[in-house]
Amino acid sequence: MVDSDAYVSRGIGLLVRKNNSLINEVLIPKNIPLPARVSKTFKLMGANSTFRIKITEGDAESADEVREIGVVAVAKQMRPMGEVNVSFEIDTDGLLR
């Protein structure tokens, strides 16, 4: 049985570059009941062989107003443009996967 009082207390997202600015894109907004799961596909730009996904906690759009809670380094395919699918899941205990 899922506790109906279990909610996401702060938004979970990642930092993305839009119009040469780094912004927080919230994927799981606050006040969503737990468990919660979301997936989104992002386009990759540039020819770097690896890239980093910076995971954030907070609801603000400004990168300066959210807290970085994790970083994942991902090896990129050899082609200069591609896509990556990002999935977040928060279980009923509040653990992010």
Please tell me about this protein's structure.
- This protein is mainly β.
- It is built from no helices and six strands.
- It has strands at 12-18, 21-28, 36-44, 50-57, 67-75, 82-90.
- The strands form two sheets. A four-stranded antiparallel β-sheet has the order 2-1-4-5, with no helix packed on it. Strands 3-6 form a two-stranded antiparallel ribbon.
- The relative contact order is 0.29.
- The mean pLDDT is 85.
**What is the topology, as strand order, of the major beta sheet?**
2-1-4-5
User: What's the shape?
Assistant: globular
Roughly how many Å is the radius of gyration?
15 Å
Based on secondary structure, the structural category is mainly beta
Task: Give the DSSP E fraction (strand runs of 2 or more residues).
Answer: over 45%
The biggest sheet amounts to:
4 strands, antiparallel
Q: Give the terminus-to-terminus CA distance.
A: 20 Å
**Count the helices. How many?**
0
Low-confidence stretches: none
Overall mean confidence score, pLDDT: 85
**Percentage of helical residues?**
under 10%
Tally of strands: 6
Order of helices and strands: EEEEEE
